[in-house]
Amino acid sequence: MSALAATTFTVPPVEFGKLSPMLIAFGAATLGILVEALAPRAHRYRIQVGLALVGIAAAFGAVLALAKTGVEVVAQGSVAIDGTTLFLQGTILVIAFVGFLVIAERKTDQNQDAFAAQGASVPGSQAERDTTRKGWQTTEIYPLLMFSVGGMLLFPAANDLLTMFVALEVLSLPLYLVCGLARHRRLLSQEAALKYFLLGAFSSAFFLYGAAMLYGYAGSVNLAVIAQHVAHPDAGSTLLYAGLAMLGVGLLFKVGAAPFHMWTPDVYQGAPTPVTGFMAAATKIAAFGALVRVLDVGLGGSSAVAVWRPVLQAVAVITMLVGGILALTQRDIKRMLAYSAILNAGYLLIGVTSTTAQARAAVLFYLPVYGVAIIGAFAVVTLVRDAGGEATDLSRWAGLGKRAPIPAALLAVFLLAFAGIPFTSIFIGKFAIFQAALNAGAPALVIVAVLASALAAFFYLRVVVVMFFSDPLPDGPTIAHPSIAVKTALAVAAFATVALGIAPSLLLHLANNSAGILAK
Amino acid sequence: MSGFPYLTVTIASPLLGVAGIALLPRGAQKRAREIAVATSLITLVLAIVDAVKFNVGGAQYQLTESHTWISQFHIDYSVGVDGIALVLILMTAVLVPVVLLASWNDGKNTPRAFFALMLVLEVMMIGVFAATDVFLFYVLFEALLIPSYFLIGSYGKSGEKHRSYAAVKFLLYNLLGGLLMLAAVIGLYVVANRTVADPFDFPTLAHAVATGQLHFSTGVERWLFLGFFIAFAVKAPLWPFHTWLPDAAAEATPGTAVLLVGVLDKIGTFGMLRFCLELFPSASHYFTPVILVLAVISTIYGALLAIGQRDMKRLIAYTSISHFGLITLGVFAWTARGQVGATLYMVNHGLSTGALFLLAGFLISRRGSTEIDAYGGVQKVAPVLAGTFLLAGLSSLALPGLSSFVSEFLVLVGTFEKYPVAAIFAVTSIVLAAVYILWLYQRTMTGPVTAAVSGFKDLTRRELAAVVPLLALILVLGFAPGILTKYINPAVTQSTSLQVTTTPPPSIAAQAQGSDQ
């Protein structure tokens, strides 16, 4: 990059075409704010949902249109558009589309969506009752979530640490807000949001500090420049290692790896369930994309790998053990799924630490199949309802398989997939990751992962046992009849989970090709 | 590769019934049983066609088919049978219609799901024996657990607590074993991928191992062997991995228990015979002493515990543990006689224990109790039931003239050739078998007619139709075991495991193989 010494400001060329997926997402979000300001309250819901879905579909179209182009680093070296980026962006958009179908659901809860009528009203106050009676809705969540989607699209594409930080904040801030907007159990939801915000802000600070140290080390925040300095060190490595550690904390927080996982169960439990599903899937994909880019592009030099690989391997082991063991003690289905998400982050970390293109392909395959299954699982949770919202306590689910065979069977499919039973997509994902890890010479990690899987099977099966082998409760929860949108989302998720377990070749092929193309 | 996909058609045929059951209108739920029995009979006919098409004395693997499945990992859908797999498929195809007929009134409120699950299980059971791709084998090996899990957990004896406990225990034991095997399967793939063109194709792998083209370092081979062996030992089950079996067999319906003990467990011993011995010959030799000890313990321990049981189904489950010990002994005896005997034993055990379980089930359905003490004097009230029970029991204790005798004899002789001490210890199980079977018969069938038993009806026509074919086969195979050994003998001699035993001890063998092949 040349220094801009000229007195007149020359506009740097920006390749808008290459950035179009992100621009479309941000554009849809901005339009959504205008809708919020200008459209009458009665029409907002329809317009916002339509706008968001159209925006996501258009951005997906843009990703497809870009698919043929090769590696390109655009926007003055700050955004890398390559196979890995496009694969992840496409995945995030598909997940977001399915996620929005569930988020926009109003039929399961007496024509209300899952969000507080007015976020600002005090829980239990007269204002809350008034706004609820008037049927107000927080339609702001759609533009907020679109901003978040835009940030997620940018996060794995960011080729310099500052852009990555901006993307991190753009994707996180709206989520902090939306997490606090649950319609039922608002205090729990607000507590979750506050916790998420405080810890998230803390980890962002770590990230930023790490970026500053790496800047001090390499004289640039650009990943390619950092990579050059790692390959040809001309100064001491203290700043590199310190920066690496801090950056790692920030990123591992986002992927929900132990010991930075503390927020996950509380936030997953407190957030409105459709948002939890969306967040569990999409944030994880974006964050792993960013982690892969930082580690493989910026710090992929062998001297750096030798330092971070054992540490990350240890983190992977701790993550799997924490996820697997603590999930055993959970009585709440949302918390259990949160620990399962931690466990899965551990598997993904095994892939990340293997550092081969093969392992990257395995991670790329795992992310969408896991994302689709977890969205499906949380969508089923939204259907099982009590007077006070969703019935998330496991004991309330007794005999669900007898009273509502279809939702129970769908959840069983997702849970068996998480347990890694053959003929499900996640089994193939695990196979891909484990074989990449063995190829990279890490048999111990595979053994731990296998044992953690066996542990995990126990708590997934406990849900199946409760649903299918127990007798229904006399005053059990009601099963909501969802709209066609949620039915579609569930059908797509279940179909993808089974179909990609039986015929994974196409997606594996795509992941292999995409993983091979990484802008270094 | 033959033109017509005989095996695939056989494997997939039960799915016809599943589709038929799924399409049944709500009012006609009970029709599921007829559809299921009819489909399983079609499958039986197809399996017999496979046997006819199988050319004894021809290539080792026949009726082979192969299609690329997941090209990225060199995974194929390949099926094919040798004589061993063929007789096990035949046994499965015989047992399933019998079990369905015997389970006529099981399946409680949801007979459609019950019979559909049974048929799905049959697809996977036949598939697992027919698979010649290691990955395909593994996938079916694991997937089998799910229908079995629901069959144990959703049906069977009332008392939800015990049932779900048994189902979860069954699944966790087998899943843990299976996951260890997954690690070993991947390890095998990673190593084989370096030197073998088709690293999941079993015949290719076995050949490569025998010729030294595929060579593992000693440590790796032992770990991979253990991964496979533990999975099979849990499935078989071998002491000390056996504790899931009595629970599962006692809680499941008699029909499910027959498939569990009669077929599913055979996958374990089948896997040892095929995968452990042929893929990891040196490690198999290395671990043979330990395995023989475990097998002998299983044989004697299972028999002793069977004697001590008060619950009829648990008793039969423990007799099976004893028998699986003998089968494992035959497999790891490293003699052709032992392995032929073990294979024959797998079939005969399926028939005799199947008949015993079903008859015990009929008995239990008349009284509602599984306790042995709840019966007495049945032979005066229901002589046919008692007689068939005695015949099945005598087959289980390997009375000469009945099918089990031939296989048990072969196993013991085959073991004695190489490991006389193990054989001598194992022989005691013959005496113990007489004790547990005859004492069971004495306590339930003889003596004064107890009040609860006095109203017993004898076997119905449906029940007779279920057990008579099994008993007939037991008699026929007792006098003419050649029907099966004609298939089994060439498969055992063609298998590479016995050819490898003639080479020097492991460490030297590795170097020698490279030069002389």
UniProtKB/TrEMBL annotation, chain A:
The chain crosses the membrane at residues 20-38, 45-66, 86-104, 141-158, 164-184, 196-218, 238-263, 275-295, 307-329, 363-384, 405-428, 440-469, 490-511. It catalyses: a quinone + NADH + 5 H(+)(in) = a quinol + NAD(+) + 4 H(+)(out). It comes from Actinospica durhamensis. The gene is nuoN. NDH-1 is composed of 14 different subunits. Subunits NuoA, H, J, K, L, M, N constitute the membrane sector of the complex. Belongs to the complex I subunit 2 family. Its main location: membrane. This is NADH-quinone oxidoreductase subunit N. GO terms for cellular component: endomembrane system; plasma membrane. NDH-1 shuttles electrons from NADH, via FMN and iron-sulfur (Fe-S) centers, to quinones in the respiratory chain. The immediate electron acceptor for the enzyme in this species is believed to be a menaquinone. Couples the redox reaction to proton translocation (for every two electrons transferred, four hydrogen ions are translocated across the cytoplasmic membrane), and thus conserves the redox energy in a proton gradient. One of its GO terms (biological process) is ATP synthesis coupled electron transport.
UniProtKB/TrEMBL annotation, chain B:
One of its GO terms (cellular component) is endomembrane system. One of its GO terms (molecular function) is NADH dehydrogenase (ubiquinone) activity. One of its GO terms (biological process) is electron transport coupled proton transport. The keyword Nucleus does not apply. Residues 66-126 form the NADH:ubiquinone oxidoreductase chain 4 N-terminal domain. The keyword Metal-binding does not apply. This is NADH-quinone oxidoreductase subunit M. The lineage of its organism: Bacteria, Bacillati, Actinomycetota, Actinomycetes, Catenulisporales.
